[in-house]
Amino acid sequence: MRTTRPGSGTAVEAGMSPGDDPGRPGSPRAALVAAVLGFFVITVDVSGVNVALPAVRDDLGGSMSGLPWVVDSYTLMFAALMLSAGAFSDAVGARRAYGWGLGVFTLASLACGAAPTLGGLIAARAVQGSAAAVMVPASLALIRQTFSDPVERARGIALWTVGGAVAVAAGPVLGGLLTTEWSWRAVFCLNVPTGIAGFLALVRAARSPRRPVAFDLPGQVTAVLTLAALTFAVIEGGHDGFTRAVLAAVVVAVVCAVGFVAVEARRPRPMLPLELFRLRGVTVPVISGFALNAAFYGGVFVLSLFFQEQRGQSALSAGLMFVPMALITANVNYLSPRAVTRFGRRTVVVVGLLTVALGCGVLLPVDSGTPPWVTALLMIPLGIGGSLAMPALTSLMLDSVPAERAGTAAALLNTARQMGGAVSIAAFGALLAGDFTAGMREGLLSAACLLVVVALGAGALLPRRQGS
């Protein structure tokens, strides 16, 4: 049985914990603000850190092969734990799960800023990623449970994605400014005031319903081992070749991936119900989200290094290169729901994917002699396509599952996205081990080809008109 508290738009499940009394007054706007701030601080941490990587290496030491781990230790745990985090969000309530995740993330940010060694920084980044894994599905579930009307929910999701787009814009600039004027450590300390603001908004949000969920330890262990082994193989294989350690990692990744599927198929309450993949509204967002993040975050990673390592720009100057792309991206992100209403999800998703592919393609001729303003303009399509497609893909995903599965669905989508980012950063980092410019072009070309294939698949699977 389901009841809805008048005026809140929040569906409440029977049998929920007394501690989550749905009668507690709450502000839908406060819930949305809290969710947006959380996604903002998570995203700004990725984009800002990319610009600070050369300064981190100069201060803490390490090689080119070590730098991807500063990013991938975060994204690896982010991706690997998110499926369980989605179930955790459903079990304890989105509001409570989000609050716990935000608290750990803020403390881990302080630990990153105080890290004495590269290993310590990587470890603290892993804790950050674990907390972020809880925050993202909880924040989306908070929106899903707060806004029952599809139109209002689509607008809420659009604002949520705008928060990420603004973070992508602000991250490189703030990261470059803080690194240039103070230290790379200040980049992580920036998360603290944002985290506090998120807490202040969260306390005004209504409590969330709970759903009994069993923790899937075998599934979680096999998921972590699969992603960790795969990331290790890509990063180390690109630098050292197919050594015994790399080959062993590949074998571990394959065996654990097969084990994960077998475990999830047999468990009565898996953290990832495999039947979800029978829905086109799930498979298309998952595959498209992987491809979009692979192209975007791989591109941001390599371009951040390119501006500083190959062109000799400062961290601040490198960050400013992303401003034109980010300013336009933020506006397109907010306009995406209107485009879906007018043209349908199929058109918006396919056009978005192809636009990112175009963005990768037009960057292929860029080298150290290309004028900075030309490079900045050529980066714009890379951001426009993702900001056009992701709101449509996210709303498609959430509309395709029941409300009580919102946390799991959000976790699955964002797991795929983070996997795309982690694998692409590892791959781009490996390609840069030789000739930098040639490696950058190989990575961009590979991403463009992947996006074209995924766009063709999305066009074939989605109905011609699905905008409502």
TrEMBL record:
<feature type="transmembrane region" description="Helical">
    <location>
        <begin position="184"/>
        <end position="203"/>
    </location>
</feature>
<feature type="transmembrane region" description="Helical">
    <location>
        <begin position="122"/>
        <end position="144"/>
    </location>
</feature>
<feature type="transmembrane region" description="Helical">
    <location>
        <begin position="419"/>
        <end position="438"/>
    </location>
</feature>
<feature type="transmembrane region" description="Helical">
    <location>
        <begin position="313"/>
        <end position="335"/>
    </location>
</feature>
<keyword id="KW-0472">Membrane</keyword>
<dbReference type="GO" id="GO:0022857">
    <property type="term" value="F:transmembrane transporter activity"/>
</dbReference>
<feature type="transmembrane region" description="Helical">
    <location>
        <begin position="241"/>
        <end position="263"/>
    </location>
</feature>
<keyword id="KW-0812">Transmembrane</keyword>
<dbReference type="GO" id="GO:0005886">
    <property type="term" value="C:plasma membrane"/>
</dbReference>
<feature type="transmembrane region" description="Helical">
    <location>
        <begin position="97"/>
        <end position="116"/>
    </location>
</feature>
<feature type="transmembrane region" description="Helical">
    <location>
        <begin position="444"/>
        <end position="462"/>
    </location>
</feature>
<feature type="transmembrane region" description="Helical">
    <location>
        <begin position="372"/>
        <end position="398"/>
    </location>
</feature>
<feature type="region of interest" description="Disordered">
    <location>
        <begin position="1"/>
        <end position="26"/>
    </location>
</feature>
<protein>
    <submittedName>
        <fullName>MFS transporter</fullName>
    </submittedName>
</protein>
<dbReference type="InterPro" id="IPR011701">
    <property type="entry name" value="MFS"/>
</dbReference>
<feature type="transmembrane region" description="Helical">
    <location>
        <begin position="347"/>
        <end position="366"/>
    </location>
</feature>
<feature type="compositionally biased region" description="Low complexity">
    <location>
        <begin position="15"/>
        <end position="26"/>
    </location>
</feature>
<keyword id="KW-1133">Transmembrane helix</keyword>
<feature type="transmembrane region" description="Helical">
    <location>
        <begin position="215"/>
        <end position="235"/>
    </location>
</feature>
<feature type="transmembrane region" description="Helical">
    <location>
        <begin position="284"/>
        <end position="307"/>
    </location>
</feature>
<feature type="transmembrane region" description="Helical">
    <location>
        <begin position="30"/>
        <end position="53"/>
    </location>
</feature>
<keyword id="KW-0813">Transport</keyword>
<dbReference type="GO" id="GO:0046677">
    <property type="term" value="P:response to antibiotic"/>
</dbReference>
<feature type="transmembrane region" description="Helical">
    <location>
        <begin position="73"/>
        <end position="92"/>
    </location>
</feature>
<dbReference type="InterPro" id="IPR036259">
    <property type="entry name" value="MFS_trans_sf"/>
</dbReference>
<feature type="domain" description="Major facilitator superfamily (MFS) profile">
    <location>
        <begin position="31"/>
        <end position="466"/>
    </location>
</feature>
<feature type="transmembrane region" description="Helical">
    <location>
        <begin position="156"/>
        <end position="178"/>
    </location>
</feature>
<dbReference type="InterPro" id="IPR020846">
    <property type="entry name" value="MFS_dom"/>
</dbReference>
<keyword id="KW-0046">Antibiotic resistance</keyword>
<dbReference type="Pfam" id="PF07690">
    <property type="entry name" value="MFS_1"/>
</dbReference>
